[in-house]
Amino acid sequence: MGEATPAISTDQVAHVARLARIELTPAEIEHYTGHLGRVLDHARELEDLDLAEVPPLAHPYPLRNVFRDDIAGPSVDRDEVLNQAPAASDGQFEVPPVLGGES
Could you tell me which residues come within 8 angstroms of residue 82 by beta carbon, excluding any fewer than 6 positions away? Predict the structure, then answer.
């Protein structure tokens, strides 16, 4: 692969930094221009790959259901838990309001 035109200019990097509200020094702009240029060059190389025989896929790894069956089992007694709460009434925890309103 021969020398191609630069993938991104310092003006473009400065513009993207302004859009992202990132303050960069001129040295940082130069630094990131080189790094982003290499990333874009690599993306250009990937575009040139012959993928005609590669089947499309949504995920590179086989997926499986990682959830267990929802089976009821023994748990802690509700009254025992509520007795340890700082405040409870009518079988429920009492908590301060979080969206305003009366306490």
Answer: 88, 91, 92, 93
40 in Cβ contact with 13 (< 8 Å): no
Q: What is the dihedral of CA 96, 99, 102, 103, to 10 degrees?
A: 10
According to DSSP, the residues that pair with 93 across neighbouring strands are: 88
Q: Is the pTM of this model over 0.70?
A: no
Q: How far apart are CA 40 and CA 63, in angstroms?
A: 30
Report the Cα 61 to chain-centroid distance in Å.
19
Question: Is 13 exposed, middle or buried (CB count within 10 Å of its CB: 0-12, 13-18, 19+)?
Answer: buried
Phi, psi of 64 (to 5 degrees): -145, 160
pLDDT (tens digit per residue) in 4-49: 556 799 999 999 999 999 999 999 999 999 999 999 999 999 999 9
CA of residue 53 relative to chain centroid, distance: 31
Spatial separation of the C-alpha atoms in residues 11 and 42, rounded to whole Å? 21
